[in-house]
Design goal:
single chain; alpha/beta; six-stranded parallel sheet; binds farnesyl diphosphate
């Protein structure tokens, strides 16, 4: 098929090279809502629907690991109303997933980030979703909730100290990260061009792809564009 044909199609395009681990910073929900005179929570709701579409598409494409940045350790500073709306969206998604595990197909759901601060109710649903999909062998969808890249590295180091290590090398840290240790491509919509404490360790040799599209408007075609661009990157890993 023509990759960017105007006609909507359900056909999944083929790529010569796919990122093994794709990271996505879902940004621009607030601006999307503001442009429409809506509360920020409406932007997050629209963003959650795009998350569903894009995570399904990553699975259809056969991407092995995809990490979505859903809530950072810094996002607690936002107004309570907005934080509550986001937590409610995570809960809705998990209840949906619980009711229809068949829909998860062969995909694995995993949550990354600190558990402290998250309600017991949500933690229970998160644990259940992880458990129910733990034997699946398809795409691993990591949802970064209460996540910070620095916190992830500190937590890896602490785990190694607890094991009695007195000298720590890069491989030791890689083994203790929440996600697959390398991230090949990071997509950030909404025009911002920064990492914002996302996958700091894993991003050492990541390719970056930016777009002005706000996350709630992000489409499968935008994903294909990013992947097409990634195919043509010349990755040298410092060599
Ligand atoms: C950043 O955009 C986005 C967030 C802090 C939240 C992202 C969360 C979602 C898209 C919902 C995910 C839901 C599920 C079920 C996984 P922003 O609000 O900072 O946007 P702005 O920069 O335009 O203000």
């Amino acid at each position: 098929m023509a990759l960017f044909s105007k006609k909507e199609t359900n056909e999944v395009p083929q790529f010569e090279t796919l990122p093994t681990h794709l990271g996505i910073i879902m940004d621009g929900n607030g601006r999307w809502a503001k442009k429409r005179g809506l509360p920020r929570s409406a932007g997050h709701k629209a963003g959650a629907n795009v998350f569903r579409t894009i995570s399904d598409e990553c699975a259809a494409l056969g991407i092995k690991y995809v990490t979505f940045y859903a809530f950072s350790t810094e996002n607690w500073k936002r107004p309570k109303e907005e934080v509550d709306a986001l937590m409610a969206l995570f809960k809705d998604y998990l209840l949906e997933a619980k009711a229809d595990m068949v829909k998860a197909g062969n995909n694995k759901i995993k949550f990354i980030g600190e558990r402290e601060g998250i309600s017991q109710e949500l933690l229970k649903l998160m644990d259940e979703a992880e458990e129910e999909t733990s034997s699946h062998t398809g795409t691993t969808v990591y949802l970064a909730v209460n996540y910070g890249g620095r916190q992830e590295i500190a937590s890896a180091v602490n785990a190694l100290i607890k094991e009695g290590k007195t000298e720590i090398n890069e491989n030791d840290i890689s083994q203790k990260l929440y996600t697959y240790p390398e991230c090949d491509l990071i997509i950030r919509p909404s025009g911002e061009q920064r990492l914002s404490n996302f996958l700091l360790w894993q991003a050492a040799y990541s390719e970056f792809w930016y777009s002005d599209v706000l996350w709630p408007d992000f489409s499968k075609k935008d994903l294909y564009r990013a992947l097409k661009d990634f195919e043509n990157r010349n990755r040298r890993f410092g060599a």
